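## retry 2 of 3
previous attempt timed out at serialization; input unchanged, resubmitting
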Amino acid sequence: MEVFAHDADAQARSECIQGVLKKAGPAFGTEWHHLKGKILLRVSGKLNPSTNDEYTAAFGS
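## retry succeeded, writing output
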């Protein structure tokens, strides 16, 4: 979880990370990103999708 001063900063960080991961390929791994205002929750892509769903539910509440 990363917390920023502004919503736009969290969005920019998420886009930057996703861009790097896409460009670098599978050797750098994968992540799920969830944004909630100034908060970016990064969940490892090594986890099962159902585990990501649990993080998503907890983050949303």
